[in-house]
Amino acid sequence: MSRAVVERLRLAPPERLLANRATGRIRLSVDAKGSRTHRTSVHEAGSLRVRFPTTAPGMLEAVLINTAGGMTGGDDFSISLSLDEGAQLLAGTAAAEKIYRSTGADSALALTIDAATGSRCIWLPQETILFDRARLSRRIDVSLSTNAGLLMAEAIVFGRSAMGEAVEEGSLIDRWRIRRGGQLVFAENVRLDGAIARTLSRPAVANGGVAIATVLAVPGDEQMIAAVRDSGEQFAGEVGISAWNGIAVARLCAPDGAALRHDLAALLSSLEVAMPRLWLQ
Fold this sequence. Notes:
The protein is mainly β. It has one domain (26-280). The protein has helices spanning 3-11, 14-19, 196-200, 222-229, 257-270, and strands at 23-33, 36-46, 48-51, 60-66, 76-83, 88-93, 97-99, 107-115, 120-123, 128-130, 135-144, 149-158, 170-180, 183-194, 211-218, 238-244, 247-254. A hairpin with an 8-residue loop joins strand 3 (48-51) and strand 4 (60-66). The protein is globular and about 50 Å long.
């Protein structure tokens, strides 16, 4: 990009910058035919794409790609996954999602999962990386039939420590709603606003850690808890897990993104969940 173009963008009115925002939409539906899961409908719009690498028979793997290379204030992405009866889907992202500095508006991201009887969805995106003064508003809504299965892991890293980056200020709004058989079984709102680094430094928040994750499993039980706790010596950061009303939730906090990824891999291995191949490259 020429210096003249950069200067024009720098001097452009805020409303013009806001009008030039990225959008992305993925709507994916899958069903089961015998022992294999097939895609029945794929809709792509804007800067989001989905690809289907060849995998072992049975579970279908979907890899989401953001061709915009990240998100910034005013960008608006949504992902919808629908699993028909008996379908098995592993979905994730090709790379870490980067949320760049905003001039004021939020980056908006919505994930919706609908899983029918006997289906199972594994949602394993790579980590979301927030840069200093980034603003992210994310909403996750999951609707499961009574005997559908779900395992999802979401990781957030505040700055790339290996590159000397820190997130001093910014905004994160994260809203989760999980329903099973029409009943709300998990609801959570997380809000970090303003001096994020100072908040994360508090012992009751992250005790100075800059990488956090949540892993949620349905169904979840005491056997799952025991498997994770038996792997405790492998973890580089702090990991805790609990189960109630048929679900299990693990929380992870680590000093940096590399330690968090290591701990996520160890936790998923203890649950006998194979890491997506793109995580290992």
